[in-house]
Structures
1.
Amino acid sequence: MQTVLITGANRGLGLEFCRQYAEADWLVIAACREPENAASLTQLATQYSKLKIITLDVQNHQQIDAYAAELQDTAIDVFISNAGVYGDRHALGELDYAVWRDTLETNVLSAMKLAEAFAPHLAASKQGLFAAISSLMGSMADNGSGGSYLYRSSKAALNAVMKSLSYDFARQGTGVLIFHPGWVRTDMGGPNGLIEADESVAGMCHVIENFDLAQTGRFIKYDGSAMPW
Ligand SMILES: NC(=O)c1ccc[n+]([C@@H]2O[C@H](COP(=O)([O-])OP(=O)(O)OC[C@H]3O[C@@H](n4cnc5c(N)ncnc54)[C@H](OP(=O)(O)O)[C@@H]3O)[C@@H](O)[C@H]2O)c1
């Protein structure tokens, strides 16, 4: 049986990842910070007996270490580091530095901490893969409009650390992919997004299914096409 762990599993892309992997009969470890307020995820767990919900705030490193210890005998085939925040949308002159630090904490440090803590679980898989949900907004080459300092810097930093991780993880046979999920109609993407979550996630699952280590460290769109750094 194959196992996937998904962070930010209660809504948006994370919830859709849960739905599609559960439908494909994987053991799904669905991590969210407030299961008591995760009605859609709880409902999904009633339909799929192999979907387990765990309480995880990705900023809480003690909680991450505790789950890593609890799951020490579980090989994780795919880890979807999906939880993320946009941060403050204010412009130059009004930036909120406390929110900026918080954005970096969630989008960068948490992803790295999760990768470190779950490295042995991924190594125990025949072909472990750590998939980081990043964004085109982390791209320097694509930045033709500026602004979004908090989000852009966090996703650019995420891309940098995931690229480094791909070299370290290659030594243990684990892959790393960095995804731009597209502009998706979720709470974060808003109603003007170009695609629905099911299309984005189906694309990423297809790419993951066909992954081999030669592709590690790539920054790609949900359909597998290369993204500009
Ligand atoms: N939608 C887009 O167009 C788009 C485009 C590019 C990249 N992305 C990226 O895709 C990922 C998912 O985005 P989305 O569109 O699905 O956003 P979303 O609907 O806003 O969902 C964000 C998820 O992250 C979780 N989260 C935030 N902080 C957390 C924390 N400290 N601990 C645990 N969970 C936390 C949220 O949980 P709570 O409900 O508890 O807040 C929620 O489940 C993000 O990394 C985002 O940056 C999205």
2.
Amino acid sequence: MYRDMKYRFPFPKNIKINIAYPTGEYAHENFPESKYAVDFLVEIGTKVIAAKMGVVVGIKSDSDEWGLDKNLVDNTNFVVINHKDGTYAEYLHLGKGKVEVQKGDKVETGDLLGYTGYSGVMDLPHLHFNVFKIKDKKGISIPFKFEEI
Ligand SMILES: [Zn+2]
């Protein structure tokens, strides 16, 4: 299907990788748009880098609203990158004013995208990372793998 499912971890090498899979009503697998998403438990202000090269097609960085109310979903700061193979990666829960790329920017694997923060639906500090394709104007989460670089 997609030739290159491999991604590097979206953090600099010195960051300890801790992946969490939320359960219950917030479980990723309950929603087609986030089925294969992972949450990296990292401190606020952690550098986020591109897990794969592509073009920045969406950003938001003006929110400092967050909490467990699901209505806060539109308050998530994020970066979305479109890859060569047509897939997208989204990097969610960035800090207010902490997105370091612009829409239209070309990024290489490893380029700085921004810094984690509190925004959107969350409690513990984390980066939500997801790969998806677009079908009928909706994002559908697709499987991916990480490789150490
Ligand atoms: Zn998540």
